[in-house]
From TrEMBL:
Organism for this UniProt entry: Hymenobacter psychrophilus
Keywords from the named record: Signal
PROSITE patterns membership: PROKAR_LIPOPROTEIN
Protein name per Swiss-Prot or TrEMBL: Uncharacterized protein
A Pfam family annotated for this UniProt entry: DUF6252
Signal peptide: 1-24
Length: 166
């Protein structure tokens, strides 16, 4: 895959799905609940639980994207990309794993990225753990710190869990 395309793939996917979004809600216990099919995580102390979820398996790669409250005035989007195999994938130059998080408000969209840029560097930090993978579903956990390339600001995504059909 061309280096620039690898870096831009999550950004283009995010923009294509920008109509999907989520708003955070404050919760005294920000730990996401166990999931039936769905995805949840915490960001800035707020629990996010998806209202829309999609997954795609393409060859040896797996992508999962989720949103909450896609038609709200404030929304968020999270996408994970990883190898389609059970294992732990720490974001690095040698692992094809990444996380993208974005927020959308009336004033615009902010995008945060963690993973190999395809330009010989790694942005942010994090990992995805695929705990189960069958022909019809996958589940696991994730946590990462993503960087907004335009501003240099970071978002910490913690306590992430996913269970999704393929």
């Amino acid at each position: 895959m061309q280096p620039l395309l690898r870096f831009l793939r999550p950004v283009f996917a995010l923009l294509a799905l920008s109509f999907l979004g989520a708003c955070s809600s404050e919760n005294e216990d920000p730990t996401p609940p166990p999931l039936a099919p769905g995805m949840s995580w915490t960001v800035d102390g707020g629990l996010m639980t998806t209202t829309t979820l999609q997954a795609q398996r393409s060859g040896n790669n797996l992508s999962i994207a989720g949103t909450v409250n896609p038609n709200g005035p404030t929304s968020s989007f999270l996408m994970l990309s990883m190898p389609a195999a059970v294992g732990t994938y720490t974001f690095s130059l040698t692992t094809d794993a990444s996380g993208t998080y974005s927020t959308r408000t009336n004033s615009g969209t902010e995008v945060y990225y963690a993973g190999a840029t395809g330009l010989g560097t790694v942005t942010g930090t994090g990992s995805i753990v695929v705990t189960a993978l069958t022909a019809t579903s996958t589940s696991g956990t994730f946590a990462f710190t993503a960087i907004n390339p335009a501003t240099g600001t970071a978002k910490s995504i913690t306590s992430g869990k996913f269970t999704v059909g393929l």
